[in-house]
Amino acid sequence: MQKYHIEKDTVQETLVIPLYGRKVCSERFPHLFKDPDAERICNMLDYDFSEKGKKMESAIGLFGALEVSQRQFDVGCEVKEYLSGHPRAAVVNMGCGLDNTFRKCDNGLCRGYNIDMPDVIEVRNRLLPAGEREQNLAFDLNDDRWMDGIDASDGAVFFAAGVFYYFRTEDVKALFRKMAKRFPGAVLVFDSCNRRGTRLMMKTWLKEAGIRDVGAFFFLEDPNELNAWSEDFASVTSKSYMRGYRDIYREVGLLHKLMIRFCDSAVNMQIVKISFRPAKSWPKKMRAIEPMEPRYKPPWPATVRTAGTPPATNQ
After folding, report:
1. Is residue 142 in some structural domain?
2. 153, 156, 171, 219: most buried, per Cβ within 10 A?
3. What Å distances lie between residue 133 and 67, 122, 182, CA to CA?
4. Other CB atoms within 10 A of residue 247 CB
């Protein structure tokens, strides 16, 4: 089988990191994170995984893999919950990379849309081509045209995993507002952390992405801050990244237990869900009600008289 070559220090290589993390967790924790797609795709790549493998052998490296896999599980829980009430909804993966969440959540009725930059979609089309009721769309998320390709007539659940850290806060706000207007009644799910967490990322993969001014990029000290962003947000809720959907605390060693506590208390790693307000339903215009004829007519003419004056009589 011919393997697909991945160049070092390219956008393609950034796709390998979460993919390999999912593969490692699939092998180390198969009862929690079994992921045949991640294993299959890694075996299809012409790429030297030895460096990544050494990093994953460390406690910190393995915890990074756990974060990636647990995040996918969390997002999948929200997608499945929405589909339980909207079985034919659109399932939209924003910044999809080589993620396979739609396939894990597919109920046989919903429609999947995977959106990413053109060079990423080119790789995805070769390694993870669209299946039945699924489309891979090549767009920058800041290009509103991607919204035109989403059929949300039966509802829509949008999700983004590890994506918005690369966006400036004002761009995230503008995107969320547009989506709330365009897709009333839909749900948006994504991961977030506070400024401290963003600074920690700065030392690793944000730095590799060329991001220096962390303060300008998206983070949340408190997810409730989002309530002030738009009147079209019906609700904003959040859960713990590592323990909110499935508590893996008992499944890991002491060091990873401490790291989970740190993520919850110091970094505020959260899965956030915004529910957009449904479209307003205005009452039908009512026609004017015509006055009814009185059932009883007095025997005298309807004239105005003063108090104490008897009604007029015929002479």
Report:
1. yes
2. 156
3. 29, 19, 22
4. 11
Question: Do the domain assignments include residue 18?
Answer: no
From 199, 188, 201, 12, select the one nearest 91 (Cα to Cα): 188
Number of independent structural domains in the chain: 1
- 1 inside domain: no
CATH number at residue 238: 3.40.50.150
For residue 169 the two structure tokens come to 């806060």
The answer to whether the CB of 87 falls within 8 A of the CB of 133 is: no
- Is the distance from CB of 92 to CB of 159 less than 8 angstroms? yes
Do residues 215 and 196 touch, judged by C-beta distance below 8 A? Answer: no
Residues 74 and 243: their CA atoms lie apart, in Å, by 9
Sorted by sequence, the CB contacts under 8 Å of residue 295 that are 6+ apart come out as none
Q: How is residue 200 written in tokens? A: 């920690």
Range of the domain at 176: 73-276
Q: Exposed, middle or buried, 239 (CB in 10 Å: 0-12/13-18/19+)?
A: middle
Structure tokens at 27: 């092998």
How many residues belong to the chain?
A: 315
Specify the residue for token string 């007539």. 153
Closest CA to 164 of 197, 130, 190: 190
List the end-to-end C-alpha distance of the chain, in Å, as a whole number.
118
Confidence of residue 193 (pLDDT cuts 50, 70, 90): very high
Query: Is residue 308 pLDDT above 60, yes or no?
Result: no
Give me Rg for the CA atoms of the chain. Answer: 29
**68 within some domain:** no
pLDDT tens digit sequence for 252-296: 999 999 999 999 999 999 999 999 999 875 445 545 555 555 554
pTM of the model: 0.84
Q: Cβ(91)–Cβ(105) under 8 Å?
A: yes
The residues pairing with 236 across neighbouring beta strands, listed in sequence order, are 274
Amino acid at 222: D
Residues 34-56 have a mean pLDDT of: 88
Cα–chain center distance at 294:
62
